[in-house]
Amino acid sequence: MIDWLSQIDHELFILLNGLYHPAFDKVMVFFSAKLVWAPLYIFLIYWLLRTFKKKGIIYLIAVLL
């Protein structure tokens, strides 16, 4: 299973790397910014705490450690 995932990861990397176009430069710079992902992280924390209540806090602490 791990080998399969590793192979797909490698093939996807090669595919994306081979699709060079100047427009992708701006897109990739945008997605590599840290603050772009902040809403997703906030939503995941909210969902974790709302879904799992007290266990969610334990899960959150475990992930942060």
Explain this structure to me?
The chain is mainly alpha-helical. The mean pLDDT is 87.
Keywords, separated by commas or semicolons:
mainly alpha, flat, single chain, 83% helix, 65 residues
- Determine the mean pLDDT: 87
Estimate the helix proportion, in percent: over 70%
Q: Which overall shape is indicated by the principal axes computed on the Cα atoms?
A: flat
* Share of β-strand residues: under 5%
Order of helices and strands: HHH
Low-confidence stretches: none
Structural class: mainly alpha
Question: In angstroms, what separates the terminal alpha carbons?
Answer: 27 Å
Count of distinct strands: 0
Oligomer: single chain
Number of helices: 3
Major β-sheet profile: none
- Radius of gyration, whole Å: 17 Å
Brief overview:
With 65 residues, this protein is mainly α. The protein has helices at 2-18, 22-31, 38-64.
Q: How would the blueprint of this fold be written?
A:
Layout lengths: L1 H17 L3 H10 L6 H27 L1
